[in-house]
Amino acid sequence: MSLIPAEQAFSQLQSTADFLALTLEQPDQLPAFEFHLANGTRIAVWHTGVLLAEPAVPGQQDIVLSSGIHGNETAPIEICNGILSDVLAQKLQLTERVLFLFGNPWAINAGVREIEDNLNRLFSGHHSKDDGLTSEGGLSKERARAKLLEESVLKFYQQAPAGERVRKLYDLHTAIRGSRFEKFAVYPFLHGKDWSQTELQFLKACDIDTFLLMQSPASTFSYFAAQSCQAHGFTLELGKVRPFGQNDLSRFSATDKALRALVSGQPLSLSAFVEAEFNFYEVRRAINKQTDAFRLCFEDAIENFTTFPVGTVLAQDEGVQYKVEVEGEAVIFPNPKVAIGQRAMLLVKPVSVAGKVS
Ligand SMILES: O=C(O)CCC(=O)N[C@@H](CCC(=O)O)C(=O)O
Ligand SMILES: [Zn+2]
Q1: CA dist., res. 246 & res. 239, Å (int)
Q2: Which of 32, 209, 272, 310 is least surrounded by CB atoms within 10 angstroms?
Q3: Which active-site residues does the annotation give?
Q4: Where is the active site (predicted)?
Q5: CB neighbour list of residue 250: distance below 8 Å, 6 or more residues apart
Q6: ipTM associated with this complex
Q7: Which pTM was predicted?
Q8: Residue 31's Cα: distance from chain center in Å?
Q9: Which residues contribute to the annotated binding site for Zn(2+)?
């Protein structure tokens, strides 16, 4: 696809205020360009799906809002594009610097989770590990995209004004299957540091009160943000995968409202932190698919966070059965279609965070 001139991209964005449409029309590449809105906000398009919005006098937070890392997870894409469109149309006045990312334009266009590789397994340098290079020695589409997204996020944080800053990255997803808790967040492994009370309170204002507390490093975008950028990074799971136009966005209105308040300096009514108002789960086991024989032993209708009696066979692979080991162990993200070697299911159990939140 040929590169459109910057002037054409600029005038289209100005007239439509729709960066998602521009990104999806030009999924391979967009010329970089920038301009100022009449309210002083600087808009800088860095790449297709990568746009910086910066108020004339930025507050102390640098916030990344990312969606579409998996192309068929559309509700988050609609939410983020709605926020960005209102920024571009000057209906929402930013007080904070925000980097908007539409993760995988090709997969969004195709309505699929991924094209060649799972983009959310390629961060923290995994994009450039040699086993995924093409026969010409280059990077696949998603590997190149993961590298570009990492570079963009690092540049965004590095270009922040001097002084004390708070870095955040919310990577919005939807789950493949239904969940007992419609909205939940994955809190990446913090290497023993306390979980952030302010973040838990903010996410509660987003109507998210269920957290998976990860216990080991990962190749996800949110772990990259937390570990390599010292940001408050989260994967937010908002409902179940549905095609564009079939999402009931009213179910995510609290999330939309809280994100808008965050980027525009509106007061957020954060309630006091009370552990009993949350569900915290710790990952006990990550089951990786070893062979093509990997099978789940329960139905597709089984929701995330479902528990089974101890001893129940949950999945089998060549020569191995995975059974429930302890009472209360619940399944999350079971997916037999992942590539060999990748995570096919998490087994989690409820935990208390007493003494580990500050
Ligand atoms: O429903 C599913 O099976 C997957 C939904 C999804 O894409 N989840 C993210 C979680 C990322 C994390 O662990 O932080 C993923 O699998 O990439
Ligand atoms: Zn996803």
Answers
A1: 12
A2: 272
A3: 237
A4: 237
A5: none
A6: 0.98
A7: 0.97
A8: 25
A9: 70, 73, 173
Are residues 245 and 331 located together in one domain of the fold? no
Tell me the CA–centroid distance for residue 169 and ligand 1, in Å: 16
Q: Is residue 307 part of a domain?
A: yes
For the cut 70, the answer to whether the pLDDT of residue 131 exceeds it is no
From ligand 1's centre to the CA of 345, what distance in Å? 10
Query: In the structure, which protein residues have their CB atom closer than 6 angstroms to any atom of ligand 1?
Result: 70, 120, 173, 175-176, 186, 218, 220, 222, 235, 333, 335
Cβ neighbors of 52 (< 8 A, separation 6 or more) are 42, 43, 44, 46, 97, 98, 99, 100, 156
CATH of the domain at 323: 2.40.50.630
C-alpha 175 to ligand 2 mean position (Å): 6
Q: Which residues surround ligand 2, an ion (CB under 5 A)?
A: 70, 73, 173
Per-residue pLDDT reduced to its tens digit, 16-49: 999 999 999 999 999 999 999 999 999 999 999 9
Any alpha helices (H) in 237-340, and if so which ranges? 253-264
- Separation between Cα atoms, residue 330 and residue 316, nearest integer Å: 16
For 139-186, how does the pLDDT look when each residue is reduced to its tens digit (9 = 90+)?
Answer: 889 999 999 999 999 999 999 999 999 999 999 999 999 999 999 999
Say what the pLDDT of residue 3 is: 82
- Looking at ligand 1, which atom is closest to the CA of residue 335? 3
Calculate how far, in angstroms, residue 277's C-alpha sits from the geometric centre of ligand 2. Answer: 26
pLDDT digit string (tens) for 187-216? 999 999 999 999 999 999 999 999 999 999
Whether 40 is in a domain gets the answer: yes
List the domain range (segments joined by +) for residue 55.
Answer: 6-273
Best probe residue, ligand 1, of 120, 215, 343 (max atoms within 8 Å of C-beta): 120
CATH number of the structural domain spanning residue 27:
3.40.630.10
Q: Looking at the structure, do residues 255 and 313 belong to the same domain, yes or no?
A: no
What integer pLDDT is reported at residue 135 of this predicted model? 65
* Radius of gyration of the CA atoms of the chain, in A: 20
Per-residue tokens: 109: 């266009």
